[in-house]
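I am writing to request your help with a piece of structural work I have in hand. Here, with my thanks, is the record as I have it:
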Amino acid sequence: MSNVGKIAYLQAMDIPVWINKTTQEKDIPPEKATSITDLDWETLADRVRHCQQCGLSQSRKQTVFGTGNLQAELMIIGEAPGAEEDRQGLPFVGRAGQLLTNMLNAIGLDREQVYIANILKCRPPGNRDPQPAEVIACNDYLNRQIALVQPRLILSLGGISAKNLLQTDQPVGRLRGRVHQHLATRTDLMVTYHPAYLLRRPEEKSKTWKDLQQIISHLANRSI
């Protein structure tokens, strides 16, 4: 991990860091020193594209930033990119992505109407689960995306996404069916099963259909 990455990791954990001014000026170019909370879409995407805050930067083909409507009412957050996402640089473009598209179409939405991102911006080797340090390294990027989109509702797909967004150990089965709040931005958040899980367990699709109906109802009934 680079010196910049170590500093960001420690700061994310609220660990006091002493930074030598000379080292800081040498390691962080002026355009990179801006706080993530001040970045616009273009600068944020560029920061992610060149990110080396964790070891995934060494194994990725490219980063997977996010895609969709930058002013979407519904923001969908998955877990981590897979092989096809790593190749194309876009989230949910494999079989799970095709199912997600069908899920959205079933409730009258196109992919272009929502914003889609992941907990991680880089693919973990072998599609393993994200490690805590990797989630921390990406967390500020995701929070900034949420702040820029300002969605009325976040849909968390799968256990890894939900556990990190809500900081909970409860399984999806206990989290779905009610409205939560994303801890960092206080945005309303609902949880359902990940499309990849539904491909393995199609019998759970009926539960997801109920979740999708609740999502549409929530968006329709909440005052602007």
Notes: The domain at 34-221 is CATH 3.40.470.10 (Uracil-DNA Glycosylase, subunit E). The chain is about 45% helix and 10% strand. Residues 197 and 203 are 10 Å apart (CA to CA).
